[in-house]
């Protein structure tokens, strides 16, 4: 084994030792539970509504993914010192905002990966239900055109919304994280202390 191979092995071992495996396990289980809950709610809502209501449910899931993506981006953009003056003045939600900033990696993982990705998956499933309802009894050509159009619209709204949201999240990170902190304060969610 030459020096290069030893260096690569050392870097790989170093990377694996830095992974918080407890957090990885927690986020995996949390993703599973949130996915089941959102899928169940989506299926229940779609089973008894018409196509217009289903379209609004679809927009709700797309919007949910965009909003959580904005919060995740803002958490990684904001710096803790920007929030300390609010915390010193005991502004409601400032303490929680500082916590969000300190735990930006976890906040971004939950907001962008867990909620954002699950919203994207459920948006696709909701779109499939809408396509099936709209194209029922149509010949293959109109079915294909409608399917491609609806799928393209879902992708465009999601990607365009998130692209716009990222710029908004970066430029308004303090206000967004403080708002998220205020929501956490109202909900009285216990926050773990950073060691």
Automatic annotation (TrEMBL):
The keyword Transmembrane helix applies. The chain crosses the membrane at residues 21-40, 52-76. Keywords: Membrane, Transmembrane, Transmembrane helix. This is CNNM transmembrane domain-containing protein. The lineage of its organism: Bacteria, Bacillati, Bacillota, Clostridia, Eubacteriales.
